[in-house]
Amino acid sequence: MHLPQLLRSVIRERSISLSIVLTVAIxxxxxxxxxxxxxxxxxxxxxxxxxxxxxxxxSTHAVAGQPLQRMRWSYQRIQLLRQQGTDFSSVAxxxxxxxxxxxxxxxxxxxxxxxxxEYFSLLQTRAARGRLFVAGDDIGEGAHAIAVxxxxxxxxxxxxDSAIIGKSVSINGRELxxxxxxxxxxxxxxxxxxxxxxxxxxxSLTYPGYLTTDQNFIAVVARLKANVSFARASMNVRAxxxxxxxxxxxxxxxxxxxxxxAIQSINEVRVQPGTQRSITILLAAIALLHLLACTNxxxxxxGRAAARRREVAIxxxxxxxxxxxxxxxIADSVVLVVAGGILGTLLAYxxxxxxxxxxxxxxxxVSRSSISSFSxxxxxxxxxxxxxxxxxxxxxxxxxxxxTAAMGINIGHSLRDGARGFTSGAPTLRxxxxxxxxxxxxxxxxxxxxxxxxxxxxxxxxMQRTDLGIDASHxxxxxxxxxxxxxxxxxxxxxxxxxxxxxxxxxxxVSATVDGGAPVSGSASSTLYIIGRPxxxxxxxxxxxxxxxxxxxxxxxxxxxxxxxxxxxxDVAGHPPVAVISQSAARKFWPNENPIGQRVWFGGxxxxxxxxxxxxxxxxxxxxxxxxxxxxxxxxxxxxxxRQFTFASRTVFVxxxxxxxxxxxxxRRAVRFVDRDVAILDMQTMPSLIxxxxxxxxxxxxxxxxxxxxxxxLSATGIYAVVSYAINQRTREMGIRLALGATSIAVIRLVLxxxxxxxxxGLLIGLMTSISLSKVIAASLYEVSPTDPWVxxxxxGILLAASAIACLVPALxxxxxxxxxxxRSE
Length: 826
What we know:
Low-confidence stretches: 365-369, 417-429
Helix content: 40-55%
Structural class: alpha+beta
Radius of gyration: 34 Å
Number of strands: 22
């Protein structure tokens, strides 16, 4: 077929042509986008040589009746693990660290890693310049004041100085000698590191007890020996872990706890299992939807083929062979499907640019501090190849049936004007048929996805409307990362006082305070002990959230005072310790009495850790959501004055009279006036911080909502295709009905009644499926029931309306059949 003829053929039935192109485009775009997510989450290996043999070694802690806990290691236990792990060719430890680069006009935050010398060789990385760490670099605490820097830091801070090796860099106030530059694009297992320091240097730069504490906060990575299977190493490491904890038991183990070890491939660890499972299900659902979309397109193409039966009969009667007819019959189909494939590929590409997947979508907060997800989806060669293959497969699926049907016509019947031709045996809406079943399945899938999307959207909307217990307006927040080696705890109160005094002296600053964390971002916890009550067992003391705050804390954050008083300038070291509690704490621990005047003390490393140093409760304040909203945000909070005890590394809150960001530069100068060597991290307004706390919920709502819309469009297209095809088969019947006096309303009612039968059945099936799957999505919802009647009713209404519209379009076309043509054919 010549190009002008081909274009005329496509344009002549432009509504059907447009439906075919859009259906193919939507299906391929959705499937390619889902493939991009799956490729990033399931199949893409981390960017290290032979990454399949690299494993994360975790300590495991099991208590009967509770989920298995995976933790890291203490330095002392790592030494035993390294000695006994015979299935590993190499074992390395590493810890993500936020370090401060000083020596310039302003201190700069650096993401770094504290690593053992085996780290680089285990990851099979070589230095771009100089050398990396060697075995002798971890002998003697702090003896080797050296560092390896990343290529990006070398380029940006040192202008790619070719003589960089041997020069110094000031980290956390200590001069380190640069011994090497890592290769370009190497950022370690955290995928953010710009500098690496030896493990034995950590006590002088970060935490003084890094090498001696019993706390398990150091990650361990290992490479399996060439002849060792994952199953064998997994079995043997359990025995090694048990031996390690037998030699160095936990100081405060849970009752009945059994400690051991386990390995996981870094590909498994980088993305949490729940996300992998969700993406697999999503990919399967979208693949099924696309397969059904192909059936829709085939139905539409069958309708086009029916309109060309006389042309095919004439060409055949004149001697055209099947080999000459087939290209003519499929040419326009090929053009439409290829056009849909190109448009779908472009849509998938634009989606990959427009939609950024948050880190929270891939990994848990604990895992992110160890191993990066390395999972940012990108439209690359894999996605392009997948879209191409999907387009070809779609073309093969949709053109076979209409082309075969057109080739199998009865020439004699087709040449008689008005005869049924090959349509005489075509299925109708009055009989169950495969197309009707497909429409029902599409409608059912659309219900499931629309209900899930609606629940996610409602859940996110409720999060946004939740009262967090603070006044976020005109509030600026940032973190001060001050290592304990730089400012030890005894000196921290005076250090923080100088900081707050410098900040509050600025014009436009109303008040300022500090805490260990920000609302909806997490806070330190401790265990509670109440004077006058029986002392609970070692594992029975209730956990509470702990805050070391300034006297203006509640004023600055807008937290209401319910009863009693808050802190004053008299609440300093040397004076009687006092505490302020939240309403939730008052209700839980003193449900039938007044907590004012009660005395409490806490587990942990503060000065309030014995009965003799207990604090008197002097006030009750409103509840604040210090945890993310999907993690039981309102807990029992206990506040004490930072002037009686605090750590120097704090989160700062500043309330301003005007725009908080307008004061940002002045606040930075005020901080540097007190300490030029401290880095200011994550300075932002409180509304911005709150928005980031529910970024995963926002993405889930967008993801499920977007695919729900795709399901709705494909379902509506499928209904339209089936009804349109059926109307084409029943053109004579509709004409005769109109010729015998049937009104247009009667014809529309007939088409709607028959066309809606299968969608309604699918809606009912989808409704029951959604209810049965409600537990799967329940954990992802916030204050929304997975069977919320409003969401279900809204979904059913939308789908019923879409189905009715999809039936109405061909119904209206049926009313325009010329009765004279139908009567003349009789």
